[in-house]
Design brief:
single chain, Methyltransferase, Cobalt-precorrin-4 Transmethylase, Domain 2, Heat Shock Protein 90, Arc Repressor Mutant, subunit A, 6-stranded mixed sheet, 4-stranded mixed sheet, 21 strands, elongated
Length: 484
């Protein structure tokens, strides 16, 4: 819309101040005028005129070089950068002019901010935009960005897993990323400090991180399959698990240990175990999938597919549009799609570092002599392929397939539970807290049952496995392993 003469100005004035027109007497009110212009950008566009009284009388104003500099500086404070049409309409028989700012509708670029703050227009009133409205506009602009910050008024603190929250806190304290005083704070305070609770309301990130039986989040889903051969024609195992990130991470790693081969080599008196693909590489890939995926589609999920020759881990999302693959494969700055979720995972030491996940995966694969992982993105999905042989390349392997209920070697998990119990007698809850596990099923399947089968750990009530005071201690054989 070109406003080149006084007739157009008069036509706009005749509409009076409304949702798309604002009058200001002089650029002494430039700040308020820019806030209104920002509000117009967040709506259907509009016009701000300087040199017109609030009654609609044209009075004009002097326009100096200083005035033009101040206008240019003010417009540069709009974010994101956008086109503003500026007109200086002369008044007949006068040195004064009407200064007109006009912006068209820019719905694809909303929300806009002026000096870091967003505004909205309701009828003829400009006001600060509420956080929830800002988040909604942000999601519309970026597809998924901002979904994690959207408040869910139906989500309650009792819908969250307190054990998962406190487990994250303990991990953060152990890793030096949270102060020790955090452990003594109540749950609402902890959630507020994690940016998960605002004004008594939880956001979507809280459900993704710590949700417990949250039926409104079908996208918090992990799909896992072990296929026979190298195609999807037939599978041996197929699982679907729903829950928070911590539960899904435990489940993913349990699935890898169940279906991948363990190869070992002797280093001195110790036997070192390796999965077909290094544990750290798989874990880092899964963490990145959970932290950076697009959650706004209810039907989306993370999927793990294991074949005879490869593993494919897929999640909904995209790589940053302005970041080349070459840069992604090297050290780079981290710009997570879900900064709230990523920050909590970092503080709890689940996410080890910023911008180094891909390099860690590559380094781990090279360490054991398998091909570098392949990174692909298309149609709103990212998938990583780890290729391997049935035995780990570069070692002298004695392969043990980790089928259900078969643990003939002392795995890393068994060694860990032996070290945790030591000279104590502990319940399953105490063991889970000390290890940092959130899912009891994973504790039993990967840690406790294998240790019992190998006669390293024994229950106090072996004939009553569900005894209410059931606890576990080391056997003499377990104590021998601990000493070794």
């Amino acid at each position: 819309m070109n406003i080149e003469n006084l007739d157009i100005v008069k036509e706009l004035i005749s509409e009076k101040e409304n949702g798309q027109v604002e009058f200001k007497e002089t650029t002494g009110q430039l700040e308020r005028g820019m806030e209104t212009l920002c509000a117009f950008l967040n709506g259907k566009g509009g016009t701000v005129m300087f040199g017109v009284t609030d009654k609609g009388k044209i009075i004009g104003q002097d326009v100096s070089d200083k005035t033009k500099r101040e206008i240019a500086e003010a417009i540069n404070r709009l974010e994101p950068i956008t086109a503003v049409q500026i007109s200086y309409v002369p008044i007949p028989d006068s040195e004064k002019k009407v200064i007109v700012f006009h912006v068209d509708e820019s719905s694809l670029d909303r929300p806009f901010c002026y000096k870091g703050r967003a505004y909205q227009r309701t009828e003829s009133v400009t006001s600060i935009m509420p956080q929830e409205v800002y988040n909604q506009l942000l999601m519309q602009r970026g597809g998924n960005y901002g979904w994690e910050a959207v408040v869910n008024p139906e989500l309650l603190i009792e819908n969250l897993d307190e054990n998962a929250i406190m487990g994250a806190v303990r991990g953060g304290i152990r890793g030096g990323r949270l102060p020790e005083t955090t452990i003594s704070e109540d749950i609402p305070t902890i959630l507020e400090k994690m940016d998960l609770l605002h004004n008594g309301k939880l956001n979507n990130a809280a459900a993704v991180l710590f949700g417990h039986k949250c039926y409104g989040y079908p996208q918090c889903l992990l799909r896992m399959a072990r296929f026979k051969g190298t195609t999807k024609e037939e599978f041996w195992d197929n699982q679907r698990i729903q829950g928070n990130i911590f539960k899904l991470l435990d489940a993913a790693m349990a699935f890898f240990f169940k279906h991948l081969s363990l190869s070992g080599k002797i280093e001195g008196l110790h036997r070192e175990e390796e999965l077909s693909v290094p544990y750290k590489a798989l874990r880092e890939c899964c963490i990145n999938a959970y932290a950076h995926r697009s959650y706004h589609h209810p039907g989306s999920s993370v999927s793990i597919a294991i074949y005879d020759d490869r593993i494919e881990i897929t999640n909904s999302g995209t790589f940053p549009p302005d970041m080349s693959m070459e840069r992604l494969l090297s050290l780079h700055d981290s710009r997570p799609h879900n900064p709230i979720i990523a920050n909590v995972l970092y503080k709890s030491t689940i996410l080890e570092s910023w911008g180094r996940g891909i390099k860690l995966m590559i380094d781990e694969c090279r360490r054991v002599g398998i091909p570098d992982p392949e990174f692909h993105a298309d149609s709103g999905f990212i998938w990583v392929i780890f290729r391997y042989t049935r035995t780990t390349v570069g070692q002298d392997p004695t392969v043990t397939q980790q089928l259900p209920n078969s643990y003939p070697t002392v795995s890393e998990q068994v060694e860990k539970i032996v070290g945790i119990i030591a000279d104590r007698t502990l319940s399953t809850k105490e063991i889970m807290d000390l290890i940092g596990l959130k899912d009891k099923g994973n504790l039993l399947e990967l840690y406790l049952y294998p240790a019992i089968r190998q006669e390293l750990v024994v229950p106090l009530y072996p004939d009553k496995p569900n005894h209410p005071r059931q606890k576990y201690r080391l056997t003499d054989k377990g104590k021998g392993l601990l000493q070794q």
